[in-house]
Each structure stands twice: as C-alpha cells, then as structure tokens.
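Notebook entry, structure prediction.
Reason for the run: the old model in the group folder had no record of what sequence produced it. Starting over properly, with the input documented here first.
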Amino acid sequence: MTLLHSRPGSSSQGQDVSTRGDASPSGSPVGEVNVGSTERWISAVAGGAIAVVGLRSRSLLGLLGAAAGGALVYRGATGHCSGYAALGINTADQEGASPQEYFERGIHVEESMTINRSPWDLYQFWRNFDNLPRFMQHVESVKVIDDKRSHWVVDGPAGKRVEWDAEIINDEPNALIAWRSLAGATVDNAGSVRFVSGPEGRGTEVRVVIDYIPPAGVVGKWVAALFGKNPASEIREDLRRFKRVMETGEVPTTEGQPRGTCSRSAN
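New structure, fully documented this time:
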C-alpha cells in the first residue's frame, strides 16, 4: 500500500474565489489570496456569527464587535489578509487539492484486515514513519520533518520516483492517524488508518482509507502502472505485509520472502 496521502477533516464549500485581481466592494483592488480554504471558511462563519451578535447588542462594544466580524467575513470571502501580507505569511500555498477535487476526480479505496496485536502496538509502530518502508512495497523512504510534516519518496515504474510532503491532520493515540499531501505534491493524496479493537479484545481491525487524484501526462501513467487496474489489491498486499511484521517479526520482501526480523514492534 503506497500511502497516497481520504482528506478527512478538511473543510471547503464551493469553489475558491480567484487568486488575483479581485475587487473589494468599494472597487479597490485586493491583494492575492494568502489564506487557505479551510481558514477562509472558518473566518467567514465565525465572522458572520460575531457580526450578528454585535449588531443585536446595540452598544458601542457591540458595534466594534460587528466591525471585527465583518472584517473576518471579508477575509473569508476574498481570501486576503493584510496582516499575513505584512508578515509574508501565505497559508493558501500550504494546501493541496480541495475536497471538491477529490470528489470530482479522485479515486477512493478502502481496505481492512484483522491483526493479532493490540491497537497500542499497531498504532505505535505505524506512527513511527521510519517503519513504513518495511511493509509498504513501493515506499522508499519517509523523512520526518517535524511533529506533523513528513517527506515521502515512492519508487515508480522504470526507476522513476514520486515525491511529496504530507502533514498529519488528525492523530488520536492508539486509534487513528489521518494525513494529506501538501501543495506541490506530484500526486495529490490523502488517507487515514484506524485501529479498532476486535470483539472481546481478540486482535485489532486495521482500516485504511486512501484517496488520490491521478495526475495527467507521464506522471499519471507512472501512477497507473504503480497501482495497476486494482489499487485496492496493492493496499491489501501491504496490509498483509504489515500483519506479518507485527505477528511474526519478519519483514517480507516484495516477493513475499522474509528478509530478516523486526527487532522491535513499536518505537
């Protein structure tokens, strides 16, 4: 399973406003979009609520609150923040494909497998991204950048590599890890893995959800060759490798033969 980073937790409604040359209500030009879509949505909703409460109070403090709410609504509608511009911050550049793009063009895959280990064991092993190339056939390396971000390198057909940066967007210890690729990814992708205790504590069901948008051109052909006609089968095979590593300590090769032992099941 090449973890092509369901975009769980993302929020976006409708299409983004154009990124440059927008006009404000007064007709004056607005700077380029420098606020991410999720942040814009939150600003618009929160600003609208604050403005309504402020206007209803009919006081000076309420009017000030309404003005602040209006500024947030404007920030959400235009995607431009003057404060961000002054500080050189651009959260729009940090986002990958929108949820709408995943819905319209994405490929959705779900697979699950029961492994005879506790949710704690499985979560701890998976959460240490250094372990992932041990059972993900096509993953060459995962370099941790910080607590949330990591850089992925995947072996593609004909010796080609596909790379992207990803971030964790939901992390529930011993239960769930969710992630998404960041802007500039060769392949826009997102996903999650959930660890659910089996009945009466008998093993753990590992549920994997992957969404990715096949790119066009040569890279798209690489991705198609990488997953074949049945992407779910690739994920299923990686889950089988994960099961073997966790239950026997063996690290299988791409041919399914052991290449050694796993000295520790979780880090």
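Summary: The longest strand covers residues 161-172.
The old model has been moved to the deprecated folder.
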